[in-house]
Design brief:
By secondary structure, this protein is of the alpha+beta class. The protein is built from 4 helices and 5 strands. Strands 1-2-3-5-4 form a 5-stranded antiparallel beta sheet. Strand 1 (2-5) and strand 2 form a beta hairpin. The radius of gyration is 16 Å and the shape is globular.
């Protein structure tokens, strides 16, 4: 599962983890650190894998991930996700542009002019 939110981009999979855990991967260390903080996982649990597709990874309890995702969904207070993204830092701007690129690419799947 891919998660794109204001705090980062994550790939969550069932791989190399315990029965009640999931592997959370990220391309940006700070993204995974923010999520680790929210899940009360120490930063020392983040592993760097420079040659892997996702450079940073950690395992987390599946129940903690589910609670985080549910809370994130219930906290939505915007009417446009892209417009809600912060643009305070160079990384914020880079992230917003990347998300816009993903939006544009996925828009190609939508039939045009049809209901």
């Amino acid at each position: 599962m891919w998660i794109c939110d204001a705090t980062g981009f994550y790939s969550i999979v069932k791989k190399d983890c315990g029965a009640d855990e999931m592997l959370v991967r990220a391309r940006v260390y700070e993204d995974l650190k923010r999520l680790a903080d929210k899940l009360t996982i120490p930063a020392t649990a983040i592993i760097e894998t420079p040659r892997a597709d996702y450079r940073y990874r950690m395992t987390a309890k599946a129940s903690a991930i589910a609670e985080y995702l549910a809370a994130s969904a219930l906290a939505i207070d915007y009417d446009n996700f892209k417009a809600s993204l912060p643009l305070k830092t160079p990384m914020d701007i880079k992230r917003a542009r990347a998300y816009a690129d993903v939006w544009g690419t996925l828009r190609q799947l939508q039939p045009r002019g049809e209901k």
